[in-house]
Amino acid sequence: MKENLLRRILVLSTLFILFTNVLVPVSANCVEKPFMINRVELIDDDFDQAIIDYMNSGHMPSLALAIIKNNSMVWSKGYGYADIKNKKEATNETVYMLASISKTFAATAIMQLWEKGLFHLDDDVNDYLPFNVRNPNYPDTPITFRMLLTHRSSLAARNINLFTLFSILRVPYDYLGEYLNPGGKLYKPNHWKDYPPGEQQSYSSTGFELLGYLVECITNQSLPEYCTKNIFQPLDMKNTSYYLPFYKKEQLAVQYIYLLGKYIALPHFEDRNYASGGLRSNLEDLSHYLIAYMNGGEYNGVKILKNDTVELMFTLQYPSDNYRGYGLGWQIFLSHNDSQNIIRIGHNGGMPGSQTYMFYHVFEDVGIIMFTNQHLSYSMNNLISWFSIINLLTDKAKQY
């Protein structure tokens, strides 16, 4: 085990060197050129030009956008370069990292098992695990499936720890017990928050990794195996996978980080934190999935969930004191007025080289999917560009 860990540390160091030296120089304004080559018709299209302007402002190498209405993808388009060096344009079929949108798939798997009566949402997850999980600060308070699905387990996020341990060092997933329990080889006190499970909402990828492991414990299948058979195949998602070798290199959007006027091209990597962020897909495939949820769990005559289950997943599970709460695995955004109407349901995601958005806009009865191959970080200018594009798409949906 020690030799393997040392080998993984060496790989991590090598990747760091690659990450800091694979640079694609780009000036502040030259992103516009690739978008305009062989596309003079865009000059006369106000919508397309607005998209391009926001891309330039937000330093997005490419965008893949889709509008869903009336149980179909009524409009979709790729902009810019999925691969700058090879001038490869983004299309409906370009595969992007979904990042935290992956969490909704883990939730779907869990709720399919719930429909079969294999557990209750308020069961103690310790009844289904080969090890016990309790917040050491509150050892008498059980952690339930509902708490994990709504980010109320009191588990901390610790995303860098998770990625380093399970993706880079490839520590086996049954080491989650060693990660979460005092005395474990991977345990640290900051893996837990200092409040009781169920009391507060705190976003936690660790909690979703535990849900993914629960799928494995309950079904004797890995989460990728389970989702392939019970979600991807029924929904005809032929280009969706957790595994990097599943794809040809030319299918994948290159992931970039924009830093000091340069695009840093990241090597393709497999995020083995499958439940919380490791899924890849494209517009066409993900549209099938969102259509199913917008249509009570059904796509093209195939049911992956019952209508009542979807309604439950789209229902706030705990009172929310701000504009955002959680259903079961899905983010729920509320209006700011006294009625607290739901305005959109879905999930977004972000990781180095990827920013994603998949939401059902309730008032407009429209679904919006957006991918870009550059993490927008917390730059206010980038985020303004991102949400401005969302508003453009919502307005465009009125045409259909």
Verbal overview:
The protein is about 35% helix and about 20% strand. The protein is an alpha+beta fold. It folds into two domains: about 1-100 and about 240-275 and about 280-400, DD-peptidase/beta-lactamase superfamily (Beta-lactamase, 3-Layer(aba) Sandwich), CATH 3.40.710.10; about 105-220, no CATH class. Strand 3 (about 70-85) and strand 4 (about 90) form a beta hairpin. The longest helix has 18 residues, at about 1-20. It is globular, with a radius of gyration of 21 Å.
Strands of the widest sheet, in order across it, are 4-3-2-15-14-13-12-11
CATH architecture tag of the largest domain:
3-Layer(aba) Sandwich
Shape: globular
| Tally of separate helices | 13
**CATH topology category name of the largest domain:** Beta-lactamase
Look at the helices and sheets and give the structural class: alpha+beta
One letter per element, helices H and strands E, the order comes to HEHHEEEEHHHHHHEEHEHEEHEEEEEH
| Main sheet properties | 8 strands, antiparallel
The CATH superfamily of the largest domain bears the name DD-peptidase/beta-lactamase superfamily
CATH classification, class level of the largest domain:
Alpha Beta
Query: Which range does the strand content fall in?
Result: 15-25%
How many beta-strand runs? Answer: 15
- Number of structurally distinct domains: 2
Helix content: 25-40%
Distance between the termini: 57 Å
Query: What is the radius of gyration?
Result: 21 Å
Average pLDDT value? Answer: 88
Low-confidence stretches: 1-44
